[in-house]
Structures
1.
Amino acid sequence: MRRRSRRTFLGHLGATAAAVQVGSLVGEAAWQPATDFDLLIAGGRVIDPGQHLSAVRDVAIRYGRIAAIGENIPRDQARQVFDAADKLVTPGLIDLHSHVYEHGTPLGVNSDLVGIQSGVTTIVDAGTTGASMFPGFRRFVIDGARTRIYALLNLSTAGCCTDEIYLDPRLVNTRAAARVIEANRDLILGLKVRVRGRREDLDHDVATMTTARELADEVGLPIMMHWSTEPALLDIMRAGDILTHPFNPPTERSSNVFGSQMEQADAVLPQILELADRGIFTDGQLATTHHQWDVSEKATSQGWYPDVISTDLARTPEQIPASVLLPMSQFLHLGMSLDQVIAGVTTNPARALAYPETVGSLEPGSPADVAVLELEQGRFTFGDGSRPEPQTRELSQQFMNVATVKGGVLVKGGLDG
Ligand SMILES: [Zn+2]
C-alpha cells in the first residue's frame, strides 16, 4: 500500500474507531476528543428515537457523516459551530408521502420548499408517476433537487390522474413497470396502488391489488395502498406494506379507521388494530383532503396513532404547500409525545422502506442529515378536508425549522444560529 493511500485508509479507520468510542459515550460525562470535526451542532436537545436518545447533547460531523454525539464536545474541535441551545436537534426529517413533480403534474409541489427549507432531507414521492412518466420525473426534478427524493412507482402507467382513469385496466402495464423499476432501482423503493376501498368497487380493487401483489413480489418491493377496511383487500397486504390515509372524512368515496360512510364504528376496527402485529405500517396525514378532525380526535383518544406522519399535499391555512412540520404540530396537539412525533418522521419512515443509505438516524457513521427545530408558541388555527366547510382547531404551538444540514453541509440557517 502506498503511503498516501495508507494514510487515507487509516483516516477512515480512525473515523470508525471514533464512532464506536463515541457511541458508548452517550449518556456519560467524559469526552475524549479523537480528532477535529467539520461542524458541531452544539447544545440542543437531541432527539433520535432510534437510539432512545432525548437529551441535551452535541452532534459532531466530519466528512459528511455523523462522527460523534456527546456532552460538552469542545467547540474548538470543530471548524464550524452551530449553537442549538434551546432548540431541538433531530435526524433530517423524512416525508414518506409527498407529491413533488412540480410542473409535471397539477398538484406537484416544490421539493426543496417542503424539503430542505423545512428540515426535511428525504422525501418519498408516493406514486405521482407511473412507468410512462417516471423518466421525466427523474430527469427534471429528482436529479436537480437538493433534497433526497425517492419514489413509489404508481401501478398505473399514467401515475396520479383521476380515479376513473386510474381504475381503467388498460393503464396497468406490469411489464413496463418492472422495466422502469429495474432501470431505477436506486430511486424506486416501492409501488403505489390507489384503490377506492368501497364495497361496490371491491371486485375491481381486489383484481388491481392482486396484480400489484404479483408485481411487488416479482421485484421485491413493498406496496403502499390507499385506505380501506375491507378484509379482502387488507388480506392481500403483507409485512412491510404501507396503508395510507387513516383519517379520511367518511364520504361515499372514502373510508377511515372506523369503516365506511355507511358503517362508522365506535372503536377503531379490529382489522386496523391488527395491522401493527402483521408488520404493516400506517401512514397518516392531517392537513389534506384525507383528514377530518372528528375522525383523528376519536381515533387518537382511543390511543390509535399511525406509525408514520407525512404530508400528501398538505397546505398551510394560507394555501402554501406545507412540509411535514405542519402535521407534526397537529399530532403533538392530538396528544402524541414529542419523541413519538419525531419518531413518526424519522425512525419509523426509515424502517418502512429499504433506502440505499441510512436515513432518519443520527447514529455515528450515518450521512449527516440533521434538522434543527423549535416550537413556536402562539395561537394557530388549522382546518381539515371536510366539505363543504372545514372543521378547525386551534393549536398552541407549532414546529418551525431553524436550520438544515444535508450530507454534512449546512444548507439552511446561519452560523449565528
Ligand atoms: Zn398521495
2.
Amino acid sequence: MNPKELLEHILFAKISIFTPMIEVDEIVPIIKKQIPEKPIKCRYEPLTRMGWEYECPSCEKAVGFNKFAFDYTDEDPYCPSCGQAIDWE
Ligand SMILES: [Zn+2]
C-alpha cells in the first residue's frame, strides 16, 4: 500500500486509528506529505532574485536547486522545510 492508497483508505473507509500518541487528524497531513507533488514555479520575486526557481507546493519555501549555489543545492526528493515529497518528473 502506497501513501496515497493509505490516505484514501483512512479518509474514505473511515478507519479509526487511535493510539495514545497520535490521532487521525494528525496522521492525515503527515501521509499527505508523503504523496509527491509538483514544485511550483517560484512566484516570490525576492527568492527568484536570490537564484531559486521553484517553491514547495505545501509551505511555499524555496526548493530544488539554486542557480547561484548549484554546487550545494539539488532536486531534493523532500522539501527541507516541511518534508513535503516533491515530484520533479
Ligand atoms: Zn515545504
3.
Amino acid sequence: MKRLLSFILPMLILTSCATNDGQSSDNASNNSSQTIKPGDNDVLVAYFSVTNNTKKLATYAQEHLQSDIFEIVPNVKYTSADIDYNSDCRANKEQNDDKARPEIKYTISDISQYNTIILGYPIWWGQAPKILYTFIESYDLSNKTIIPFCTSGSSPIGSSATNLAKSAPNANWLDGKRFAGNTTKEEIGNWLDTYIKKEESMKLLIDNQELNVTWENNESVKALKKLLPLTIEMHEYGGFEQTGSIGQSIVRNDSQIDVVPGDIVLYNGNAISVFYHNSSWSYTRLGHINLDNSGLNNLLNKSSVTFVIKG
Ligand SMILES: Cc1cc2nc3c(=O)[nH]c(=O)nc-3n(C[C@H](O)[C@H](O)[C@H](O)COP(=O)(O)O)c2cc1C
C-alpha cells in the first residue's frame, strides 16, 4: 500500500497541475548566504537531464556565471521506454528503490577546486532521480556550497533538495528553486543574481554600530563568510589598531602593505585587525570601513571593542 501511494501521490500533483507549466517556482528552504560572482573560477554547474529541459537551464547558468559545467551522464543511457512513467519503467523502479544508485560514466577529476556547485536535476515522482544520490555520495562535499535547482512538469522542488542534502550533511545547502522547462536565460540569470546580492550584504557592527564597508573580493573574505555570524572581542594594540582572534586559521595571501584608518585586515591568518591610524605590516586585506578619521577614532580608540560580522 505504501509503495502504491508513493507512486500515486506525486502523479496526482503532476496531472492536476499539468497545464501550469509556465511560471510556478518555489524555494526549498530559508537557508541562504552569500556565495557567487560571475567569473569566479570556483563555481561548477553540475546537472542531470534526460529530455534536455534541465540541460538547457544548466547551460544558461554556466553562461551567466562563466563557470565550468559537468553533465552527470549515466553509464547506461535512459531510453524513452526507461522514462515512460505510466509503465513499470526503469525510472519508476529506481525511484521506488531506496538502494538504487545508477552508475555515472564520468567523474570530476578534482572537485576540490570548486567551492560552489549549482546542482540541476529533473523531478521524478516528487524527488531527485536516484543518480543524483550516486553523484552526491561519490565526492567529499564538506564545506562546499550547493545551490540546487530542478525542472518539472509542475511539481515544486518540495523535499527533493532537503532529502538530497541528507546525503551530504556537511555541505552548505542554500535555497533551491523549481523552474519550468521554458524558463528563459534572463530568468536564470536573475535567480543567480539573488545570491550575488546576498553576498554584498555582509554586515559589520562594532560595538553595535552598523558600518558601511567595502569588502575585498578575495579567498580570505570568502572563507570568512563561511564562519558567519562571527563575534570577535578585540583589544587595542599599539595606539593604532583593534585586534582579536578569529579562533581558527583561514586562507591568507599576506604581503607587506601600508594600512590607513578604516582598513580591515587578516593578521597571521587567524586574527582580524581594524585600524584608526596608519601602520605597515604583512597582512591580507579584507575590507575598508567608509568612515572619516574622527568617527574611526571615536569608535576604535578605546581599550576594547566587540566586532561582529553577520551574513
Ligand atoms: C519518471 C518521471 C517522473 C516524473 N515525475 C514528475 C513529478 O512528480 N512531477 C512533475 O511535475 N514532473 C514529473 N516529471 C516530469 C519531469 O520532471 C520534467 O519533464 C523535467 O523537466 C524533465 O527534465 P529533463 O528534460 O532535464 O530530463 C517526471 C518525469 C519522469 C520521466
4.
Amino acid sequence: MQSKVYHILPRAKRYKYESGLLGKFEHFLKKFPLDNYVSKKEVVPLKIHLGNDGAFRTIRPQFVQKVVERVKNIPAKPFVTDSVRIAGYDYLEVANRGGYNHLTLGAPVVIADGIYGNDSIMVEAGELLSKVAIASAIYDAKSMIVLTHAKGHIQSVFGGAIKNISMGGVSAQPRNGSWKEGRGKMHFLHGDIMKWNKEKCILCFDCAKICPAECITFIDNIYSVDDKKCFRCGRCARVCPEGAIEVPITNEVFMKAVAEGAKAVLSTFEKGKILYINFLIEMQPECDCMPIADTPVVQDQGILISDDPVAIDAATLDLVTNVMPLPGSLAEGITIEKDKDIFSILHGKNAKKQLIEAEKMGLGSLNYVIDQVGD
Ligand code: SF4
Ligand code: SF4
C-alpha cells in the first residue's frame, strides 16, 4: 500500500499571508485531523533539533509555534524537545539564543534526557545495537510530532525524520551505562576509538575545538583522546579538513544502525501515534549540530507531512533529485547524476540506504503518493 505524503509548496504567489508558506502551513494544520494522533490532555513531545551557536538554519520558531498552537487546540499539552548533544544546560542556552523558548513558542522547551543527559530507559534494539537508551521524555510519551529540518550529513549523507528520531531520541550517555548503549554505538559500533593519521594532520586543532566532551588533547603535537570521556559522536572526524581522523565503521553498518535506533524509539509508541513534518527549507550540506550554517545547496522545496517516516524521507530525497545545485553553495559545479539526490552526490554515498534498511525493519514504506496542498 502507498503511504500518503502531503506537500505544501514553498512559493508565495500573492502578497497575502495565506499565500505564504507559514500561512499555508497554518491553514493545513487547522484542517488536518491531528486528533487521530494526539489524544485530549496528552502531554506531547514536539521533537526537533535545537541547533548550535552559529547553526541558524534550523526550523524557524514561527513554524514550531503553529504546531504548538494546533496541539493546544485539541486540547493537549505540547513541549518542544531534543536530547543532549552538547552539555544539557548549554544546549538550553543555545536553544534560547536560537529563538526556541516558552515565550516565542508558547510551550516549554525541555531536554528529553534531562539536563545531565542521562535520564533514559533501556530498550531492545536489533542485531547491531542490541539495546539502546531512549530519552525518558520520549519513552514516556503516548504520541509525538517529529519536526525535521532536512539537510545533508557527512556520515549519514542525509538528515531526515529517521535520523531525527534515531539520533535525537537515543541518549548519548545513559545513567548506568556508557556510549555503548547510547547513540555513540551507532557511530562506533565495535567500540574502537578513532584512528589518527599523523602524516595527514596539519595541526589545525579543529577536532579539539568542536569536541563537546572536551576530550581531545595535543601534547607535543601528538593527538590523544580520553577514551572514558569520549561519547563517540564522530564530530571530530567530520570536521577534520584533511581526513586525518578515521571512524571505525562502514557507511553500510552506520546506516543500518541509524535505522535500528529509529526502530527502538518507535517501539515505545503504539502504531499510528506519530506524525512527521519535514521542512525542506534552507537545506545545507551538514547537520544543525555543527557550529555553522552553510549556504543551502538546493532551492527550498516546502514542507512535507506524513505518518510514515520512510515515505516522508523518500519523498524528501526525491524532491532534491535531478535539481540544480544553488550557485555559490558547496554544491556549485557538481555534476548532476540522473536519479541521484543532491546529498548522495555531494557526500559520495547513497542516502537512501538508511531508508531501505528502515523499510526492511518495518518502519514504513518507500512507496508513497504525494498529495499536493495549495499552489
Ligand atoms: S582536525 Fe584533523 S588536521 Fe586538524 S588537528 Fe585535528 S586531526 Fe589534525
Ligand atoms: S567522537 Fe570526537 S568529537 Fe565526539 S566526543 Fe569523541 S573525541 Fe569528542
